[in-house]
Each structure stands twice: as structure tokens, then as C-alpha cells.
Amino acid sequence: MDLTLLGQQAQASARKLALLDTKEKNRLLGAMAQALVTATPEILAANEKDLAQAAANGISETMQDRLRLTKERIAEMAAGIKEVVDLPDPIGEVEKMWKNEDGLLIGRQKVPLGVIGIIYESRPNVTTDAASLCFKTGNAVILRGGKEAFASNQVLVEILQQALIKEGFTPHVIQFVTDTSHEVATEMMRLTEYLDVLIPRGGAGLIKRVKETATVPVIETGTGNNHVYIDKDAQLDMAAAIVDNAKTQRPSVCNAMETLLIHEAVAAEFLPVIAKKLAQHQVELHGDERACQYVPEALPATEADWSTEYLDYILAIKVVDSLEEAIAHINRYNTKHSEAIVTDNYFASQKFLQEVDAAAVYVNASTRFTDGFVFGFGAEIGISTQKLHARGPMGLEELTSTKYIIYGEGQIRS
Amino acid sequence: MDLTLLGQQAQASARKLALLDTKEKNRLLGAMAQALVTATPEILAANEKDLAQAAANGISETMQDRLRLTKERIAEMAAGIKEVVDLPDPIGEVEKMWKNEDGLLIGRQKVPLGVIGIIYESRPNVTTDAASLCFKTGNAVILRGGKEAFASNQVLVEILQQALIKEGFTPHVIQFVTDTSHEVATEMMRLTEYLDVLIPRGGAGLIKRVKETATVPVIETGTGNNHVYIDKDAQLDMAAAIVDNAKTQRPSVCNAMETLLIHEAVAAEFLPVIAKKLAQHQVELHGDERACQYVPEALPATEADWSTEYLDYILAIKVVDSLEEAIAHINRYNTKHSEAIVTDNYFASQKFLQEVDAAAVYVNASTRFTDGFVFGFGAEIGISTQKLHARGPMGLEELTSTKYIIYGEGQIRS
């Protein structure tokens, strides 16, 4: 696997892609969407290989289901690309333009980042999602998917590339790393000469490894150790609905809640109610000492519980004496993803919004809303939990950089 | 040197600083500016130590001059802080706010980055500049200056800290790394638990080392291998003025020009004229084969010349056959800082603006204008040559992150 060659090809093709107007990019995206549908049998055949391998490796039914493609899922992937076609193209927009004291007309224009590397572990639909979002924003992409979906991912990229070739455009804007070894992944993380940014999408282990290894600028995504704090002035029925939703509506995703913080003034009333509600989903409760008094069925929480992203039907519970204690706990243990307060109190809400350090801070709403589609961006390449470049759900705009374009009349600096 | 302790103190103090309103931040900045003026004798005494050490180490007169502080230069540093007081505070601004389909009111608010690390080699004024810009934007800063200015930098930070203590605020928002060893610098570059971003300011060697070593997100600054391209349709007197300015007005800075690209149609006329003009500054010319024919006094350029940031009275010259060749040369060798074309041709200017990959692209103006003050930002923490987060001159706005604040009414996700 020659990553340098992939990098050179990506860089050269990115320059060509940057020159396409929106109409032409949309036309090519449409062709790629159509090609996926046409190639459904081919994709299903490749997916069968991955599924057989998964079964042979004893991978869980849930994971196998995540991996499985069907005619409908392929149609959804194609529909996803068509949705990207319909989104406004941010490239070329001059965000602001002004004359400076020297009479120079200075504009800040949105331009592609260049070449984006994506290392992911998730389902095969990430392949077409990421490829289409990068393409729409004028970026070449180098994709490195997980071993489990290797055959599916590879055939998906081939189909997209063939569609581009058929339309007379370079296939190198979407490339696939066919070597899934650790060494090649490491090399990719350090491919500074060709990659302008690296976006890891996957579990905490992958994110950690990328952070420790990468020299390419990284946009960290994903892990969400999220809290809901029930204030002493909360409406408890609203609180119960929000906690139930944030924990059980889809526990495996990064915007699900992991720890419930409850003010001691309402703990005795609220905890038995919510415990009963959560029992309908067999949620396992890990409580601190006080929580266990109110909910005897809870297991005793350990220090590790406060830092754990369960991604499962498990909830940690801590009783706190004040809003301040809740905020301090959150800022100590959270992964800066999504945090919520339930309260009727104006000053409590303002304090929580201001002092909690996270990408998305909610008053009286479920953490589950942190999502590019829900926010109205029309797409999502991931949810950034770092503070540089992009924070929170990343749509098309977050896949752009800027360039100053300056119109002069012969000015020199004195 | 316990960097972990510095990191913990910085993080805790950043939370306090983030809560100050603009008036209070400005009041504290004013106190710091005043403290610098009051402590002039103390600063001069520390600076004397650095100067004596520099002389003993046989450091050049130019470098010694960069290091030297005077009563006037200290007054300028204080005045610089007062200018930061007068700048608008970006923190708290809600860039946009909208209701989504669920009725959630979602706002994107500018917030501090958190803790910023700055590793710099430059003159002592960077200490007070960086400290005041980070403070104004609500960021704690950990400063690690160069060995040469150690005593000066240390006393400057102490004075700023004493001013904060006197005003009843924590001094940990501005901290100084007193160990200048390589090991501690490396540790700082990997202090991911506490640093939200690392900004290196210095020569190509420092930038390279930070890029290779850092796991903390980096904003790369500085190196500028910049070109001016003289098109066949250029006004040659304007071209000569721009080249002279871009090369000789201040050759030691990153926005100075390093290579002249000239269209062959005007090379015979232009090169002897510009060579004569540059001879007034004893500029050494390194020309390709054709350039040397027109300017016999030029030395033959080698491949290395095209990649070199001289930062000196040296200019590389290459004759090209077309605008396309000029653009290809620039995109191959530049450091993506500042690039200029001189032309009367509309389509040549548009093509150059669109296809040249750099932070700032000029038509008919000197590259020397790439500067936060000149652009009208009122300040500059550096010039980013990367594409993530910030590109080009970085003012206060570039020292911020964002947070989504979301006002709900009990919404849960369905």
C-alpha cells in the first residue's frame, strides 16, 4: 500500500475538484447515487463476504446487523447522496469583504480544506456519506474503514470511482486504503505532506490512538459521557421524560446520557419514579451512597462509573447538594459533548449554560438532539468534541477552510 | 518544572476568567499595562542580564538589538496592552440563533478556547502581546519563551501576575515555563489533558519540531516562502514597485517575498530594471537559466532555492512561459502564506485568486500586507499557514471556540 501515491493523487485531484462549479459537482454526485442503485447486486455480494467473515469470527448479532446491507439500505445510501446534492454549497462564499486603510479590498472566502483523511470503524454507509460530503465541499478524501466492513467498503468506493470515470472526472478524489494493518493506519495519521485534516470516527479506543499518534491536524469526534442534571426547581414529570429519552431512546449513540445528577432536595421523590420508568428497559443503575438509599436496587457506583461512556442500558446516578456541585462534577468528568439541566429557575439555567464546558448545553431538553440533521445542517460528518476549528455537529460548513482574496491597485507597504 | 501543576492551575483559572465581563477584563488589562511602566527599572535590569549573556555567547548585533528593551520599548508594550483594551471583546457573541423543527432555540456562542500554550523564540514583547490577547479572549495562557530572553520574559510575566494579585484576581491565567530544556518543551507539546491549543511562534525549525512532536492541537504559524508573479500584461513600473517593496522593505519577516516569477514575454524588459533597483539594497539574485541570461550578475539558482525562505536580501528568480506554469510552481513550492500577481488582465487575476493555494492571495499589491493590524483586526497573535480553525492573520476572533446553547421546553427526541 503506497500511501504517498494515494496522497499525491488526492492532492492533484483536489485541485481539479476545487475548480468545479456547484452544478457540475451536483451532476457527478447524482451519477454516483445512481451507480450505487445500479450496482446493488454487486454490493450485496461483497457485503455477504463481510457477513460470512463476521459470523465465522463469532461477532455479535447486533454488530452483524450494523454491518448488513439490504436493497433498502443501499437505496437509503443513494438517497443520502441526493440529499447532499440538495444542500447549499458553501464553497466560494465570501463571508465578509471590506476596504482597509490602504484601500485594499479584502475578502474572506470559503475554500475546500484540500485532502481529508477519514479513519472509521462504523457501518458501510459512512463510506458513501463521508465521500459525498467531502466531494460536495470540494475536498478529496482518503477513506480507511474497519476490517469488518472491508469488502463492502471497497466495492462501494469502486462504484463511486467508476461513476466518476464514466462521467470523465478523476476517480482520485475518493480513494480507499486497502491495507487495514496497524502500520498503514499509523502512516496515514502522520501523512502531513498530503493530508490537511484527519477525522477519526469510531469508539474511544480509536479516538485515543489517533490523538496520541497523529501529526496531521485532527478533528476529534464522538465520545459522549453526557449528564442530565435535575435541579431542585425542576418539573419532575418533564425531568423523567427527558432522562428516559436521553438514556433509553438509543443508548448506543454518543449523544445518549450516561450519568444522572440529581439535587438532594428532590432525590427522594424523583429517584424511585425514574427507577421504575427505566426498569421498563431493564436499565442497570449504579448509584452513589445517597442514590442507593432511595433506590435500593441500584448497584454501588465506583469512581470509574463517573468517567464511563456505557453506550448501553446502564445509568450512573449521583445526588448533589447544589447546582455548583453538579457543574463541577460535569466539568471534571465529561467529554465536552452534550449536557442538560432540567429546571424552572431562570438563574440556574443561565449559570448552567454559561459555566458548563461542552459542545452543546441544553436547558429542559434531551441530550439526544445533538445531531447535524436535528440542528438543521442537512448533513453530519461527525460531532466534534474539541475546541479547535469545529465544535459540536459538523455539517458542510465545517469541511471548509478560508482564503483571503485581496484586490489591489498597486499598493505597497510603507 | 511541574507542567501538570501549571496545567491544573491554568485550567482552574481559565474557568474563573471565562466568567469575567468585558469591563472587568479591561480593568485588569489596564492594571497590567500600568504595572509594566511602573516596573521599568526592574525590567531593564533583567534585560541587561539577557544582553550580557547574549554578548558573552557572541550573538549577532542584530539579534542583540531584537532582544534589547528600552524605556520606550517598555512604554510601547504597555501601549500595546491598552490597544487590546480598546478592541471589541468577541466572547459571548451569539453568531447565529434559530429555532429548529422541534422548537428548540439553538444559538452558536463564541467562548474562550480554554488554555493556550505558546512556544516562542522571538523578542520579549511577544510575552506581553500574547498574554494580553489571550486574557482579553478569556483564555489562560502558558508561555514558554526562548533561552535568549529568559530573564526578560520571566520578569515580565511576574509583573503581570503581581498586578493581577494586587487586583484580587488569580495570577494563574498567565504562567511561564521556567525550564527551557528540550524535554520540558516536548512535554508541553503533549500536554493534551490541559492544553486546548498550542501556538508555536518562531523559525521553520521550531514549527517543524512542534508539528512532528505535538499531540495537542496546533495552529501552525509563520513560515512564508512567498512569490510575486509578473504577468505578461503587467504594468512594469507597478511590478517593480511591488517587487522592491515585497523583497526589501523588511526582508526578515514572514510576509516578505522570496521568489520572483516573471513571464518570458516581459522578462527581457523587466529583469534588468528590477535588478538595478534591487542592487540599491545589495540584493543577491539567484536566477534560473533564462533569468541569468537577462541578468548576468545573478548566481545560478539550484532546486533548493525554490523552497528556501531566505528572510534576507536574497531573491530567487524564475522565468515562466505562462500563468499556468507560475501557478503550478507556486502551489508546488509555497508554504501557503502570501502570494501576489501583477497584471492588468481580468481573467489572469481571477484565475490566480482562485487557483493559488495560500492564506492570502493578492492582485496588484505587495505580499507585505498580510498582517492582523493592516487587515484591520487591531491585533495579531500570529499568521496561520494551516487550513484548520484559522488561516492567515489571527486576531482576537481566532482565539475563540464556540458552544451551542439550546433553550428547550421539555423536548425529547422521537
| Structural domain tally of chain A | 2
Instruction: Provide the gyration radius of chain A in Å.
Output: 24 Å
Question: Which CATH class of the largest domain in chain A?
Answer: Alpha Beta
Number of strands of chain A: 16
Low-confidence stretches of chain A: none
- Order of strands side by side in the largest beta sheet of chain A? 10-9-11-8-7-12-13
Structural class of chain A: alpha/beta
What is the level-2 CATH architecture name of the largest domain in chain A?
Answer: 3-Layer(aba) Sandwich
Report the mean per-residue pLDDT of chain A as an integer. Answer: 96
Quaternary structure annotation: homodimer
CATH topology type of the largest domain in chain A: Aldehyde Dehydrogenase, Chain A, domain 1
Query: What global shape of chain A is seen?
Result: globular
CATH superfamily of the largest domain in chain A, by name, is Aldehyde Dehydrogenase, Chain A, domain 1
Distance between the termini of chain A: 52 Å
- Biggest sheet of chain A, in brief? 7 strands, parallel
> Which chains share the greatest interface?
A-B, 70 and 70 residues
Which percent range describes the beta-strand content of chain A? Answer: 15-25%
Determine the fraction of residues in helical runs of chain A and give it as a percent range: 40-55%
Continuous helix count of chain A: 16
Task: Put the structure in a nutshell.
The first copy, chain A, has 414 residues and is α/β, with parallel strands linked by helices. Chain A has helices at 3-18, 22-38, 40-56, 61-67, 71-86, 125-136, 150-166, 182-189, 204-213, 236-248, 264-279, 289-294, 303-307, 323-333, 346-355, 372-375, and strands at residues 94-99, 105-112, 115-120, 140-144, 174-176, 197-201, 226-230, 257-263, 284-287, 299-300, 314-320, 338-342, 360-365, 382-384, 392-394, 400-411.
